[in-house]
Write the structure tokens for this entry.
Amino acid sequence: MSQTLPAESLTGKVALVTGSSRGIGADTIRYFAEAGADVVINFRNKAPRAEKLAGEVRALGRRALVIGADLTDPTSVAGMFDAVKAEFGGLDVLVLNASGGMEANMGEDYALRLNRDAQVNVLETALPLLREGGRIVFVTSHQAHFIRTTPTMPEYVPVALSKRAGEDALRELIPTIEAQGVEFVVVSGDMIEGTITATLLERANPGAISQRRESAGRLYNVAEFAAEVALAAVEPVPADHTRLIGDVSGFVAE
């Protein structure tokens, strides 16, 4: 990894990234640790990957807490934050990265339960632990952020609608978040090369990723987009609480 955040900019801070055993979440953890943060690595079913990542973090001299939790289960989420409180006493950065909805055999309401209900519950459960000056980052896609004005591929519509519903529900909490001295920002990116979602979309709609790449000019890879997520945790929050990453010329703002 290259130095993305200013050196020592997160020294003394604690950062939790949901869904961080692999992909964008894992690289975000790496960037945070490089900048001095102690980290909480959350996973649902990738314990070996999470432990391997924790080893990388500890090799940098940072502390790493690995916690398996099903974000759609409030009891599991409560247990995760109890462990964070016991280990670190509090939290400075919360990245809501985990999402899904294209998995098979998870139930027809799974996308909404994970991408809206679980996001709100995780934030509300974490809020008492977030220290003044803390930051909450919600990760989404252009295909979801702009879904009300710009059509997306049929295979992704249920996920896009659920993620937009999650974004809307979280934005409604901004006054509550800010009253505690914590900031909130949405990071929206185009399709990301090498993610599970991109792989599933390509499988369902062959050529979809290459078509989007051609239309956009280029697509970010996992490490590049993770760097933008990490920067969102330390750079000033835009007035509209939104950071748009990559080409948006094909999307219509509301």
About this structure: The longest helix spans residues 110-126. The beta strands are 14-17, 38-43, 64-68, 91-96, 130-141, 183-189, 242-245. The chain has a mean pLDDT of 91. The radius of gyration is 17 Å.
